[in-house]
């Protein structure tokens, strides 16, 4: 379990409720590092042959572990859990999610499965590859798609949230989407190269037209409105392009700093307690 800088009694509650018959490893981060970095912390400390990330609110049903493990035993290195519908979300969340997946898969070099979150099974080989990736700004859905490997998909119905409120407001989701796009493709920069080239060609053609018209018909009355439209359109295009370049420069700044994606405050590693019947019994060796 990973505690991503919670301010309540999450750690104490987990330690009190977790059965002593099961092994428990709890990674407590020094502060909130965001979900994808908390996932990276869990991946770095997990030791099993397969790994299934699961949000602690249990909105994703643990009962799905059985078909996911069955698919893994059949040879799948990645088992995606895809929601059949998004009825538990409001209409705006459903619409924006659909738009994001369509835009991402149109622009990105590697397609991600729509309606598949972090809830999936990953083989140890896939986990080791993700742990070896050096990115500081992480978009885990994109990394899951990038690593490849044989994959299967199981579908399920996600119930409504039974308690609490999500911390993922629309501003957070917007920034999450930007991280995903800028971390998975350079096509937005390439688009502005094409757009700039097209504007340059049109500007040259318009300049030739103005020169020919002035030569033949003389100087016309200056067009203030058309001039302002051209200036405003080009100015807006330049600002948008600079903003897009800034997003990529910001990512480069994080990568150059090479800071760790998470800082561990404490790791609580509690082994499984021996059954009462075996306590005090001698251990045979040899």
UniProtKB/TrEMBL annotation:
Organism phylogeny: Bacteria, Pseudomonadati, Pseudomonadota, Alphaproteobacteria, Rhodobacterales
One Pfam family recorded for the sequence: Glycos_transf_2
SUPFAM superfamilies tied to this protein: Nucleotide-diphospho-sugar transferases (SSF53448)
Protein name: Glycosyl transferase, family 2
Topology within the bilayer: Multi-pass membrane protein
The UniProt record lists the keyword Plastid: no
Keyword Transmembrane: yes
GO molecular function: glycosyltransferase activity
């Amino acid at each position: 379990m990973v505690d991503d800088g919670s301010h309540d009694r999450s750690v104490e509650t987990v330690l009190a409720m977790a059965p002593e018959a099961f092994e428990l490893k709890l990674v407590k981060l020094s502060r909130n590092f965001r979900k994808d970095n908390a996932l990276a912390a869990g991946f770095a400390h997990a030791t099993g042959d397969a790994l299934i990330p699961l949000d602690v609110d249990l909105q994703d049903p643990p009962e799905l572990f059985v078909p996911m493990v069955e698919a893994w035993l059949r040879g799948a290195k990645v088992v995606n859990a895809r929601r059949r519908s998004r009825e538990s979300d409001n209409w705006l969340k459903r619409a924006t999610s659909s738009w994001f997946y369509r835009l991402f898969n149109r622009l990105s070099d590697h397609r991600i499965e729509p309606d598949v979150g972090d809830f999936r099974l990953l083989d140890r080989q896939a986990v080791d590859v993700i742990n070896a990736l050096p990115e500081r700004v992480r978009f885990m859905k994109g990394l899951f798609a990038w690593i490849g490997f044989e994959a299967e998909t199981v579908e399920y119905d996600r119930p409504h949230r039974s308690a609490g409120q999500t911390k993922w407001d629309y501003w957070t989701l917007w920034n999450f989407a930007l991280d995903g796009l800028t971390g998975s493709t350079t096509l937005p920069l390439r688009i502005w190269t094409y757009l700039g080239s097209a504007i340059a060609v049109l500007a040259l053609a318009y300049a030739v037209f103005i020169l020919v018209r002035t030569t033949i018909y003389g100087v016309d009355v200056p067009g203030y409105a058309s001039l302002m439209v051209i200036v405003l359109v080009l100015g807006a295009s330049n600002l948008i392009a600079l903003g897009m370049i800034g997003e990529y420069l910001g990512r480069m700044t994080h990568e150059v700093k090479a800071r760790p994606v998470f800082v561990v405050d404490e790791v609580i590693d509690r082994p499984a307690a021996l059954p009462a019947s075996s306590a005090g019994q001698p251990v045979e060796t040899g």
